[in-house]
Amino acid sequence: MFSAKQIIDKKREGLALSTTEIREFMSYYMTGEVPDYQMSALAMAICCRGMTERETADLTEAMRCSGEAVWEFDPKRGDEPLPGLPCPAALVADKHSTGGVGDKLSLIIQPLAAACGLYVPSLTGRGLGLTGGTADKLETIPGYVAGVSLDRFRAIVAETGVSMAMQTPEICPADKRLYALRDVTGTVASIPLITASILSKKFAEGAPTLVFDVKCGLGAFMHTRDEARALASSLVGSTKASGRKSLALVTDMDAPLGRTVGNANEVEEALDILENKASGPSLPAAALCIEFAAAMVSLAKDIGRGEAREMCKARLADGSALAKFKAMVAAHGGDLDEFRRTRREAKMHRFRISAMRSGYVTGIDAKKVAQISLRLGAGRQVQTDTIDPHAGVDFAVARGDRVAVGAPLATLFTSTVPDALEECAAELLSAFTIAPAAFTPPPLVIEEVG
Ligand code: URA
User: Fold this and answer.
1) Mean pLDDT value across the chain
2) Is residue 58 a part of any domain in this protein?
3) How many angstroms does the Cα of residue 334 sit away from the middle of ligand 1?
4) Which residues is 131 bridged to in the sheet?
5) Which of 1, 56, 278, 357 is deepest in the core (most CB within 10 A)?
6) Residue 11 above 90 pLDDT?
7) Domain containing 326 — which CATH number?
């Protein structure tokens, strides 16, 4: 006889829940027989007591099964194509990032992996608070519709090899409801709940290979290496336990990634990288894209990482990744010529900040930069806010660069809050640390969990 209270009691006492208990709890939650207050109580008990890998896998599966899948993954089907896809199932792969400041890498990695022969069904989201959303960035391209139907999403992946679209209402509705509760009940920060939330959506894509970018540092969800490593191990362990291939790279998020933080400016930077025009602060971001795409290609094609890396470099250099990006944008209704025109003609208020002392840039506080971008209009404080597509920050320097007094450091843009520019500029200046001694920035990849 099902009793929500007994299940909550059991978890509160630190005991492991059975597969049936987890499945029933989630299914009664979705029918409304388990009310929000009991779901919140269980979430808090999980937060305090944790879950085993098996329980986390059961919760993931219960949430994935609350809706439809893009494709059903079946480890036994191996090389058979997925319905509608002209490739063996093994070639379907995706990458997930836990979210960072200036993190436009998906705009490059997913098309690059597709240019190497993979099929990439990538469900993505909108930004909220300090985290940016890939869907928001893509929708700064006039005409781009991220909110396509599930059928259209499948068709775009089949036609072009890659689609980046919003999670549809059919996918993991349990996660959507539970996440909204967690957000207001102090239960977001739990490794098993985060793992189940991320993986239920990624598993619904049907990809047998999943690579994770677990960001670590001032501008990330996970501030310390230990926290980031624990999340990476949980994501990779649970993904492998489901019969899929997986790898995580824990990457540095103390400083913003690349040259831009915002939305349209990040798309422009992604295009520069895809067009092999990356320079200055974009170069480390471009190198990181190669690493992630190589991890996907090496796992999905079962080839060495070195060979996969060379393939990715070649597909970026010969314009194939750019061609995949353009095909995906066109399939979603986007017009890149119009994007370039809006960028040229955007009437923005701007403010340039310059170095007050000479020396080496040793730090650019990613969290402060995210807060400033949000204030300039590049993000949302609440879900209903609209984004100022051209607002944000462009950096002239990166960590490790030598600057003289008066050298430009960054430019701030906004069209909606010109009065805030001066204050934001002062705050941005305080995000820079400039010291006399030469400084080598740490590598972006902190460690690999596989
Ligand atoms: N991202 C998700 O999708 N879910 C979480 O719980 C945290 C981050």
Assistant:
1) 96
2) no
3) 28
4) 128
5) 56
6) yes
7) 3.40.1030.10
